[in-house]
Amino acid sequence: MKKYIIWFICFALGLCLSLSLKAQEDFRKKAPAALPAPKIQLGNYVQNVLPNGLKVIVVENHKLPKVSFQVFVDAPISLEGEYAGVSDMAGALLRSGTKTKTKAQLDEAIDFIGANISSSASGLFGSGLTKHQDKVLALMSDILFNPTFPADEFEKLKKQTLSGLAEAKEDPEAIASNVASVVSYGKIHPYGELPTETTVNKITLEQCQKYYQTYFKPNVSYLIIVGDITPAAALAKATQYFGKWQKGTVAKTPFAAPTPPKSTQVNLVNRDGSVQSVIEITYPIQLKLNQPDYLATIVMNNLLGADASSRFYLNLREDKGYTYGAYSSINPDLEVGSFSASGSFRNSVTDSAIVEFMKEFKLMRDTKASAEELNRVKAVMAGTFAMGLERPQTIARYALNIARYGLPKDYYSTYLERLSKITAENLQAAAQKYLLPENAHIVVVGSQDDVAEKLKTFGPVNYYDNYGNPIKAPSAASNPGGITAEQVIEKYVQAIGGKEKLMTIKDEAVTMEATVQGMPLEMVSLKKEPGKLSISVSVGGNVMQSTVYDGKKGQVTQQGQAAAMSENDLVKSSYDAAIFPELHYSKTGHKLSYKGVEAINGADAHKIVIEDPKGNKETTFFDVKTGYMVKNMEATEAGTTTLEFGDYQAKDGIYFPRKVTITGALPFPLEFSVKSVEWNKGIDDTKFKVE
């Protein structure tokens, strides 16, 4: 119903469900001390090819009685078009059941032998004790050859996928990543193609099966076996369990290699009310593991932006205090690689942060790294490399890289030796080749009102939506009709029943319901004029949190522990206690600003910024035609929470939204439905008693 509900619900959910909602800690600690470089022994590397074309790679290592098996389907890149997202769904569904076992039976069989088997669009990975290798392989081959793509698991996966997309729509980092992919690669290249609600909803079981049938062929696949097994035994197992896999033709579509822009491109995605901007500076590069300058390029990037001791971090975080962290990455790829530098910054320093990024690019290109910097980075990389060898997935990936990129068999065995020979001159040469500040896409996700003008310093500003579709520049000043914020509020009040009707409401009782991880959640809100409020949140029938405000004093009770409201919460509750707060803005001192018209879910909506006497702002959208409130956004340092309202219905002549969808407050969207609304029922004052 109203936005204040959300804060109580989310707090209670955190208490009762243990959802691991702790914010990810900023890795502000210094880089760990590098481990002594050990002698690298990856094991004997042997490669064979089965008659069906399956390439078998064996890395023999008897250190532990374990063995891992990876079936890597090296499918050519392709556009998925109107079914974008089908590959990921098909890959996930492989593990959901076979002709002989349901998903539950698969889970039980895998757990019984202490093994691990997972599936993806790229194939299967399984690992277990050597003595159980036949059982692991039997399960993997059953999954590979006999997937049933069960309808119930498909619907569950589709729902999860759509839920993830809904959450990503309110995640500025996810938005920046999406737009960066589109502007860097273009939508006619597979790397620039994004799944959307529309494409996911079009995906059918048949499309998932078609993807599997088209690309899961042995002649485009690898079987990587790592661990306590001899090459001869491994080849025998490969033949036994995967020799019957039928080869087939897999078509490959050529795509033009994306290139960096000819000049700096500034791309803005507007997020009303955001107090921070996400910046991503990115462009495609041609970088493969088999290039002579690959390792020097990785060392260069690690010095530039890999961790909390890198130049980006020391400048933008430690020196300037613009952000909690600024990092960069360089990704090699057989088709086309990428460079990216990113971070989240206060709106007031968004342009300054970009300037500092560019300064660091120039410094890396124009000057040589110090011996101290270079030695530190190489020491950290050596230690990280050694630790990575403890994981079978890492060794499998190395073996696969050797095969796919045509690397020498001793490529990783000699890694530390080659790393030690990297010089400052090598780094500068790599920087001059791969750091292209004048040919970059600058993607910014933030409040256009605060950053758009500043961004013009770097070039013309292009506007995009969350999925990288170009849009016209929103004009906050566009108001040809001379509409005021007050007029929009008046229309809203009239639309939901009229001021005269609303003023007759003296108390209100609202019950809302939702389902969270299969558990029923209920929120009951009671209000009584003037200024009394009571809210309780229950999960599974148990009251987890309640709040009471009597007009002067307030109390919050969490799992039986009561505490007095803070002064800040008392002020907030005084506003929230109003049944229809829009009737009282002139008296409460709220400032209203009209910011033009924007499209919300395909319909034009008036954009209003509402600022309370304490300076807290929220952005609210009202449908131009109906006058109804359709969206509310409130940004804090912790992030932006968005509420979308729909399905307005009437009760006793007053219209209210029956559905409320919340994103940004939790790691998943919450969809609430209003179970009941009652007015003027004579709620007793004891319901608002503060102990």
From TrEMBL:
GO MF annotations in UniProt: metal ion binding
Parts of the chain that traverse the membrane: none
Domain named Peptidase M16 C-terminal: residues: 202-379
InterPro entries: Metalloenz_LuxS/M16, MPP/UQCRC_Complex, Pept_M16_N, Peptidase_M16_C
Signal sequence, renumbered to the chain: 1-23
Keywords annotated in UniProt: Signal
Listed SUPFAM superfamilies: LuxS/MPP-like metallohydrolase
A Pfam family: Peptidase_M16
Every Peptidase M16 N-terminal domain range: 56-175
PANTHER family: METALLOPROTEASE, PROCESSING PROTEASE
Protein name: Peptidase M16 domain protein
Organism for this UniProt entry: Haliscomenobacter hydrossis (strain ATCC 27775 / DSM 1100 / LMG 10767 / O)
Lineage: Bacteria, Pseudomonadati, Bacteroidota, Saprospiria, Saprospirales
